[in-house]
Fold this protein.
Amino acid sequence: MIVYLLCFALFLVGIYGLITKRDLIKIIIASGIVGYATNLMLILFAYRKGAHYPILEKGKMVTSQMMVDPLPQALVLTSIVIELGITAMLVALAIRLYEKHQTFDITKIRRLSG
Amino acid sequence: MILPFFIIIPLLAAFLIALISGDRDYWAIIISVIALIALVALALFGFVTIRNGTMVYETAAWKLPYTICLVLDAFSAFMLVIVSVIGLTALMFSVFYIRHLSASWKYYALFMLLITGMNGVVATGDLFNLFVFMEIGLFAAFALVAYGAKAEEFEASFKYAIMGSISSSMVLIGIAIIYSATSALTMATIAQRLPQNPQVVNWVGGLFLAAFGLKAALMPFHAWLPDAHSSAPAPISSMLSGVFIKTLGVYVLIRFFYNVLGAPPIFLTLFMVLGTVSILVASFLALGQWDLKRLLAYSSISQIGFILLGVGIGTRWAILGAVFHILNHAIFKALLFFNAGTVEMVLGTRDLRQMGNLRKCLPYTTATAMVGTLSVAGIPPFNGFFSKLIIIIAAVHAGHPIYAALAIFGSLLTLVYFLKVQRYGFHGERQIDKEGVRIGWGMRTAMIILAVLCLATSVLFLPGIKETILGPVVTVIENKTQYINQVLGGGL
């Protein structure tokens, strides 16, 4: 149970960063933390205590009950790649914003309103 | 098997464009036009042939429930038709419009990726696959919003990307909870197993309502939309407002809450409340805008409110009105954004106060803008009137007279702020006579096609036509067991 709470705490750290930080780079890092917490949660759901790795070997009888669920790991791999793409996109936008405004501070960048 | 081609064609076109077009954009234009014409033909063929049946495609020769499946039924075929028709007109418009920003193939490659994402979201029957296609579409959308390379556009795109990544995380958490509760990712299997577990339904429903509500720009989650939609180039604004928020937001909400969760009453009430709030607040915010595209963006939020009000009432009539309004809003909002784009290109401003009487210099734009205005404001015989009428009548029939009254009030507000657009923007006192104003024939044709469609789609209100065209769509949405049986039975 405690790992789930810690995972949720990590998620909240990310959300806190997104809401309170004023620096573009810190916002990008915070959005990364939110993503890590999500991935961690997927892996935690798939974990079974004392279970095997999900590979069938010759001469070793393992039923599916004794294995870790491999599907969420595949999902997490996909989601990590997607997050990489999003982070690259955000960093590229931050660089272009820096070129235009000479600052990373969003309070000085703000031209659009809500 | 036509189903995988809805994804293959635009994806292949995107990569071909990147591969073979050099510095110029001729090849990019040719490939993307061919791809979209093929998609329109396929989508229309699919919609005509599918009727009450379901087509299921199991990828990689695995069998359900282990495979990722693509599902085509009347509802998804209906959305595919809207996406490809609006996509084709937006492409015709862009060919002439985007040259004044840059003549590059990159725009067309991204445009095709946007179409891939939307078609994938609509065609898939697998929850995680839906997430992946959603991200493909969002990537293209972030890049296209920033395509004009001005400071505001980067800012809007950054805001959109941060909001998008939060909502994607919420979707992923929802998927994780669903998977741990049901050990399935195929939507039909989830629909079979999930409702035994009301607590999980509430958690997942809440997460998905927030996540896809953010994509659909429901009222408390709307903050990114006016920036992103008003900063993007005009054809992209029309794609985003016309179809993108509907496929990623409204379509998924309807599909998930009706076909998978079986329309839990608490969420339907939430839809109604949030929908009504969206209608009213967004209308008031739109009243105060002087930037034409920003006003249109707020108007999109309020029209999405009408759709969700219909979805939330949940009777057959109300769903029919909502589905009809999805089609109508796609047409007239795309048209109005084309008009705004043309005016911006010719006059170099989006400020209504700096426009004036445009009848002389932009006759086609002014005329089609009038058609669009009358449609969105709900004046008969244009299409917007009929869908709003159906939703309001359905609200009264279902015993929600207060919601009906608020919707009528919101509709009147729509009329007021679009009268403001006409009064200042297109029929103002200042005579504007620009010599040698030339807009490309593609832009003019795109606007005229959509203006004609604004009138033509009102025939869907006639009883016989309504049942044959919109009837199967509503049946799919209403009937959860039919969806499960047809998908798991391998389609008909």
